[in-house]
Design brief:
This protein is α/β, with parallel strands linked by helices. Helix content is 28%, strand content 23%. It is built from eight helices and 16 strands. It has an eight-stranded mixed beta sheet with strand order 5-6-4-11-12-13-10-14. It has a six-stranded mixed beta sheet with strand order 8-2-1-9-16-15. A two-stranded antiparallel ribbon has the order 3-7. Helix 1 packs parallel to helix 4, helix 1 packs parallel to helix 8 and helix 2 packs across helix 8. Bound molecules: flavin-adenine dinucleotide. The site of flavin-adenine dinucleotide (FAD) has 42 residues, from helix 1, strand 10, strand 14 and helix 8.
């Protein structure tokens, strides 16, 4: 089989399929993590998903991350920086959705978890299962494990047509893991790019302990609006810089800066953690989330071409969902009953 795309989803699919004994070649037009994976924040979240198929996949993937962690850590110097830190959704009004996965916190409990939060925050929901990882390290480590199991990697090789790659590699199956560019192959739901900016601060001592975000982030994730949307998402990293997101806008693959987006990120973060107002931003970057119109990943066989399979469309959750997607795809390709129901992710679902 050939996997097109060496982002985190292609890497996870390669690992899972190589482990099942499949003969795997991974092809990418760029280098390692040349697409959105190199611009992701690295949150592995169950807290931002409503009950339903995406949460089921997130819970499954969360388990697979924990299973894969040690093996991946050995593959990159310094490890993949997986932190089982938990996520905290905070509110100024007290309005937060109840979840069986969360512990409700009052103002004092929130401050015990995050002492530097704004005094305006009056309530929170703490999700112990949420984690964080360094996405580029994790993807490279997954590819390294896949290679140790016999997979081959061909970088700087653009695929133009599925039938060419089948002929060139002698594969019987091609898996489309091209993320925001996935609409170029086959007839799955047409994925579009959804741009997001991130601010990266100077390195700081560990003043922010969990992944912290404001309750309006949940509405932004669920919305399909093309216009700029922003909410505050803040997390420390083991190296010290704090990452500040999240914006969402559908502007194609435009790489032009958006000062309004950056302004909203900075002011939102300072409102949540007032000490951030005095901290320098070292750089900003952006990436393109692979957005599927019905907000669900696309995983399975193409409705019109039985040699083409898909694993893409994870929007702002592809880092978290990658290991579960790899295992699901591997099971489907080898005819094993998967650990999660594949039907909602079927590429032919819109028909
Ligand atoms: C600002 C931002 C923050 C994010 N934060 C998070 C987060 O905290 N948690 C989370 O889970 N997700 C997050 N995401 C989303 C996550 O980054 C993506 O869902 C994920 O990286 C998608 O991975 P992928 O492997 O599908 O795609 P990509 O990483 O884009 O990989 C696709 C690959 O396909 C290759 N390719 C494309 N076309 C061809 C071709 N014709 N021939 C050969 N190769 C080709 C590209 O070069 C690329 O390397 C964030 C995204 C952004 C933009």
């Amino acid at each position: 089989m050939t996997v097109i795309g060496a982002g985190i989803v292609g890497a996870a699919c390669a690992l899972a399929c190589a482990r099942r004994g499949l003969d795997v070649t991974v092809v990418d037009r760029g280098g390692l993590v040349a697409g959105t994976t190199g611009s992701g924040e690295g949150n592995i979240l169950v807290s931002d998903k409503a009950p339903g198929p995406e949460l089921d996949l997130a819970l499954y993937s969360n388990e697979v991350w924990r299973r894969w962690e040690d093996e991946l850590d050995e593959r990159v110097p310094g490890g993949i920086e997986l932190e089982r830190k938990g996520g905290l959704i905070v509110s100024r009004t007290g309005a937060l959705p109840a979840s069986p996965l969360a512990t409700a916190c009052d103002a004092a409990e929130v401050r015990e978890l995050e002492p530097h939060l704004s005094p305006e925050i009056v309530a929170g929901s703490f999700f112990p299962q949420d984690m964080q990882v360094q996405p580029a390290r994790a993807a490279v480590a997954m590819l390294a494990v896949a290679r140790s199991l016999g997979a081959r990697l061909q970088l700087h090789t653009t695929v133009h047509r599925v039938r060419d790659v089948l002929a060139d590699t002698g594969s019987d199956v091609v898996v489309n893991c091209t993320g925001a560019w996935a609409a170029q192959f086959g007839s799955a739901p047409a994925v579009q790019p959804r741009r997001g900016f991130i601010l990266v601060t100077e390195p700081l001592p560990p003043l922010i302990r969990h992944k912290v975000y404001s309750a309006d982030y949940l509405d932004n994730v669920a919305s399909g609006d093309a216009d700029l949307q922003s909410s505050t998402v803040v997390e420390g990293t083991p190296a010290g810089p704090v990452l500040i997101g999240a914006t969402r806008e559908r502007v194609g693959f435009a790489r032009t800066p958006n000062p309004e987006a950056l302004h909203r990120l900075a002011s939102g973060a300072a409102a949540l953690f007032p000490f951030l107002a005095g901290v320098r931003v070292m750089r900003t970057y952006h990436g393109f989330r692979p957005y599927a119109p019905d907000h669900l990943p696309v995983i399975g066989r193409d409705p019109d071409d039985e040699r083409l399979w898909h694993a893409h469309g994870h929007e702002g959750a592809g880092i978290g969902l990658a290991p579960g997607t790899g295992e699901l795809l591997g099971d489907l390709l080898t005819g094993v009953r998967p650990g999660v129901d594949p039907k909602p992710f079927d590429p032919g679902r819109a028909r």
